[in-house]
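Fig. S4 source data, part A: sequence.
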Amino acid sequence: MGRMTATPASTPATNRPKRVLLAAPRGYCAGVDRAVIAVEKALEQYGAPIYVRHEIVHNKYVVQTLERKGAIFVDQATEVPPGNIVMFSAHGVAPTVHEEARQGRLKTIDATCPLVTKVHKEAVRFAKEDFDILLIGHEGHEEVIGTSGEAPDHIQLVDGPEDVAKVEVRDPSRVVWLSQTTLSVDETMETVDALKEKFPQLISPPSDDICYATQNRQLAIKELAGQAELVIVVGSKNSSNSQRMVDVAKQAGAPAAYLVDFASEIDETWLEGVTSVGLSSGASVPDVLVQEVLEWLAERGYADVELVKTADESLTFSLPKELRNKDLRAEAEKLLNG
């Protein structure tokens, strides 16, 4: 990749070379990579169909690709015919969903991201200690639904600083906050600050709930936003972490920022008067989609690509333990007669 030196501010915009500032890290995080590979391995090992409850990750291209290979995505485990295998998505599920699968005579593969599982375990532990748990997150998001289901009598959702005024707890000295893993770091801390003002004895989780990949991608976007006149984030509309990257870019000073699933969704009018385009992708986005955007931009004169690296990522997760069971399909079929 070519690398350019900074263009002097005095150079007229029309005379500056066009360039793309490409974020690193970007795209797949360890949890998404694990979940997608889990579906592919299950199809390879047990054959189609493999049912998946909800989208395995929030990306249109990934879901369509896995569907062509034999994955069937359903809204609820109750939709899966008895005697089949159902996989739970990277976003995690409530204990009631595991019970639904058992009652429905299904074998399960749990592809929940280990970092989401960590939040689930924190919720269970604090509920056992009889804390009120304030879960910072977006109402209706699958991850929030799953975490809330671990301790519904102890958890209340706080969807941003504006929700803080209505929060009521039993004992202000026994309150803890947890969060959805894909939120904006800055916005989450704004909510935490407001909660601490209302509940000075508020306890924080033992370690960050917002995942490392979400934080790293937001940090890279901030770096791009200070240098680019336009920021493009590749990601799906229902991807929380991708949506937050667009928000972060705008808050960090990018004159314009947009979310697209594919290069074909880019509006050429966005490029008018633009010499520097910042480009990144959400944690559930395969890099082939970013490469397509780079090709699209190169065809329009943005052939010079400068890598903007803000962090190294080397974390990997082992695949779900259920994939080590060679007889899972046979066990699922036996449930029909059980």
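Fig. S4 source data, part B ends here. Confidence is low (pLDDT under 50) at residues 1-13.
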